[in-house]
Amino acid sequence: LQDLVPVVRAINTLCVGRDQASKGLWPSDGICFRGGALPDKHLSFFTVGKKYRVPGFLATSFKEKVSMEFAHRSTPAHLVEKQPMVLWQIKVVQDCVQVGDYK
Fold it and tell me: How many CA atoms lie within 13 A of 47 on its CB side?
């Protein structure tokens, strides 16, 4: 696990730089977007206002349009069982330790 730390740190540095908040790149409302598909059987878990923690990296975008493109690609026409497209709005709270250095 110790050998993996530099790799994780490098990925994290490429994703969000420490000076991005000062350049106005960090959203003022803390909202990020993630587009995808979600099987019906899991829909009831995700409700508006639900708090849950992702145990790892979660790919998101500050641009809703980019996330919608991912949502559209996640349900290709050739799939036998179509899954509903979803657009998650993820609010990163200000006291979140994992992103605290990036505000």
Answer: 3
Tokens of 75: 């349900």
Helix (H, G, I), strand (E, B) or coil at 35: strand
Q: What is the pTM of this model?
A: 0.63
C-alpha distance from residue 1 to each of 4, 11, 16 (Å): 5, 15, 22
- Are 6 and 45 contacting, i.e. CB atoms less than 8 angstroms apart? no
Q: Give the integer Cα–Cα distance in Å for 94 and 103.
A: 8
pLDDT value of residue 102:
43
Q: What are phi and psi of 13, to 5 degrees?
A: -65, -35
